[in-house]
Specification:
It is a single chain. By secondary structure, the protein is mainly α. The chain has 28 helices and no strands. The termini are far apart. The N terminus is likely disordered.
């Protein structure tokens, strides 16, 4: 509804502007209450209503405790929430300090509808959540939502099935993860447990939705979030087992592998064997199907041709490479302690070899391409992910595929040199300790160390001037450590940096 199409609304606004008391304002508002829904008026009308009312009157509505006889106990709060939900769709009003001071008020009424069948109460809770969601959309102020009371209210609504509440939590998890997990760890854990159970039990589209949502919530800090709760690990294991054994659309497979990667980074690859349960039984099937899917998706990602396709597959390839690295680590460092059978280790090794052959083929094609620089720029994310997983393989497997890797060494050293140049340039202009770019050389070092012990590969490394890269990298690394020891650095980070520097020198 616009001002031009609603002369009656224009008349009501005139009454509001001329009102001399709260009673007159209240009477005028009652005439427009049914119209001030965010999806029924345009921005200009919304602004005109706000200018006629202002925050002062809304504050008095919220603070009033004397209710007229025969009226609902929430009559004033309900009206205030309706108006605030309308105004919150305006980004400038949503970020207003007066709106932000009402976050506790929104939180209080957001959980009012839990267990209630009252239409008035349900509408008030919906308005309150709408206000919180509008604030959450604003990066500059969304941190103010992260309090125990507010997140507790949002979590209770999310567990109760409210999509708006779950969207708020997911957005905060994406943008303010560290703060969210440190302030509201227990509350986030409740949602993780709830979604994990849905992932296990539901056999419809809700299963895939829960998988996608869990992929956002579950991260490397999940162990702290869900400490003492292992049910979610088994539930995710069972839910993903269903998905990975099914014929599914590519986007569902990406969500499944992303979730598996996040769980593995949180609790380790042993989770893939028994779902995180304290059990001596090892179930090979899930680990093998997870590895098989990972290898297949890795090949598909590396076959992408256009820049758009490469960019779209960046997240999936990163997840695949991470899972491959963890598989290597599982076999090398924990194979004996877990009593993995020789047959299982052989199956894992064949799967990893298949993936690494695809990686080597991908990098070799770029290395011999006539438009190498152009292809490198277009597929930089895929190249860096491939070099990282290849570096992990080189660090553990020194014999298999050594000939192919040796032929690729000049290209790998060149990639490391380009990466170091980008890091050096970014550190010279960056004001903070973090640099923009990928530290590719770090992932090549263990493998290069092994290869330098053999005459043939050592000659190749010398011929491609690897020694100068190592010197430049050492100088850059020491410079970064010195920067991190400068005044103003967090004491814990400074102590950690000192330890690293001692071992480096």
């Amino acid at each position: 509804i616009s001002m031009a199409l609603a002369p009656g609304l224009q008349h009501c606004l005139e009454l509001l502007r001329r009102a001399r008391s709260d009673n007159e304002l209240f009477a005028g508002l009652l005439l427009v209450t049914n119209l001030v829904k965010a999806n029924q008026i345009d921005g200009e009308t919304r602004r005109n209503i706000f200018d006629a009312i202002g925050f002062d009157f809304l504050n008095r509505l919220i603070a009033t405790t004397v209710i007229p006889e025969g009226c609902s106990q929430h009559v004033y709060s309900s009206l205030a929430l309706t108006l605030l939900a309308c105004f919150a769709t305006d980004a400038e009003l949503a970020a207003d300090p007066q709106m932000l001071t009402k976050i506790p008020f929104f939180s209080e009424f957001a959980i009012l509808s839990i267990g209630s069948k009252s239409e008035e109460v349900l509408a008030m809770a919906a308005d309150a959540l709408h206000c919180l969601a509008a604030i959450c959309l604003l990066p500059a102020v969304r941190q103010q939502l992260i309090t125990r009371d507010t997140i507790s209210a949002v979590v209770q609504q999310a567990i109760n099935g409210c999509e708006t509440a779950l969207d708020i939590l997911l957005r905060l998890a994406c943008s303010e993860r560290k703060l969210l997990s440190s302030v509201c760890a227990e509350e986030v854990g409740q949602v993780v447990v709830h979604l994990s159970r849905t992932l296990k039990l539901d056999q419809g589209l809700k299963k895939f939705e829960s998988c996608k949502q869990l992929a956002v919530l579950v991260g490397s800090d999940l162990q702290a979030i869900c400490e003492g709760l292992q049910a979610w690990q088994k539930d995710i294991w069972l839910g993903l087992n269903d998905i990975l054994h099914s014929r599914i659309a590519p986007e569902y497979c990406q969500d499944a592998l992303t979730l598996a990667r996040n769980v593995v980074e949180s609790v380790g690859m042993k989770w893939a064997l028994n779902g995180g349960q304290d059990s001596s039984s090892v179930k090979n099937e899930f680990l093998l199907v997870l590895l098989q899917r990972t290898v297949v998706e890795t090949k598909i990602c590396l076959d992408k041709e256009t820049a758009e396709e490469v960019f779209e597959s960046k997240g999936l390839l990163s997840s695949c490479c991470c899972l491959l690295e963890h598989c290597m680590h599982l076999v090398v460092t924990e194979g004996e302690s877990l009593l993995l059978s020789a047959q299982l280790i052989s199956q894992i090794h064949r799967g990893l070899e298949d993936a690494i052959r695809a990686v080597i083929g991908f990098l070799t094609n770029i290395a011999i391409s006539k438009e190498r620089d152009k292809v490198l720029f277009m597929k930089q994310s895929a190249v860096h992910a491939s070099v990282r997983v290849l570096g992990a393989w080189m660090a553990e497997e020194t014999a298999l595929l050594q000939s192919e890797i040796t032929n690729l060494l000049p290209f790998l050293i060149n990639i490391g040199r380009q990466s170091l140049s980008e890091l050096t340039a970014s550190s010279q202009v960056a004001s903070e300790s973090a640099c923009v770019g990928d530290d590719i050389t770090r992932f090549l070092l263990p493998g290069v160390c092994h290869l330098s012990a053999e005459d043939a590969t050592r000659c190749v490394l010398i011929n491609c001037d690897c020694q100068s890269l190592l010197v430049d990298y050492f100088i850059w690394k020491v410079g970064r450590f010195k920067h991190q020891l400068s005044p103003g650095t967090d004491s814990v980070d400074k102590q950690d940096t000192e330890v690293k520097l001692v071992f480096l020198l």
